[in-house]
Amino acid sequence: MKISFEAPYKKKEIIQCKRCQRFGHSKNQCFRPYRCVKCGSAHPTTTCTKKPDTEATCANCDEKHPASYKGCKVYKQYRERILKLDSKSKGKPMPNNIETKNLDPHLSTKTNCTDNQNLTKTYSEAAKTKEQYTQQNIKNDLADFSDLMDIMFEKLQHSMVTMMEKIMDKMMDRMVKLVSSLVKK
């Protein structure tokens, strides 16, 4: 039996959130306030009333283009940061295809790796090397840690504001009841 392993395909595009228009995450993980891709204001793009003949305003850099413009200076800075991280992680070779030892001698074709080497490993040998690749992935994920912390902080801040508003409403209700009971006496 022949089994080949491939490295996961990396998307060549940079993800942009459709909610806050920032880069590196999607709207499913976003708790930031809405930013319009057309005018940069604090509302969802679907509710934008900007006329087509007026110039767009970027939500990221406030220049005269939509937030999805690939020439945006914020987009270019983010792309450069990602490319630097990729070049650091590419210092260690990771084969794209690993061939297992063939148990059936009649099926003896080999698959070439991208670096033109034929690597023959058993399944257990390939599974042992998974830990090394996982450590590389962890290093790449740490680069996005600051964005994740921003999201978590904003979610916490939103929760705290909501909680404080509810507490203030309850206190005001109690104050009104107390004052009205004192006025009646």
TrEMBL record:
Disordered: annotated span: 88-111
Superkingdom, taxonomy of origin: Eukaryota
The name this protein goes by in its record: (apollo) hypothetical protein
